[in-house]
Amino acid sequence: MTAKRVILELGTGNDLHGGDYTKAALRAVQDALHHSSLAMIRTLKIDTKTGMFVDVTIGVQQPDKVDAERVKASLPHGIVTVKVVKGGLDIADPENNDPAVIASAAIAVRMEIPQAK
Question: What is the C-alpha separation between 73 and 36, in angstroms, rounded?
Answer without folding.
Answer: 18
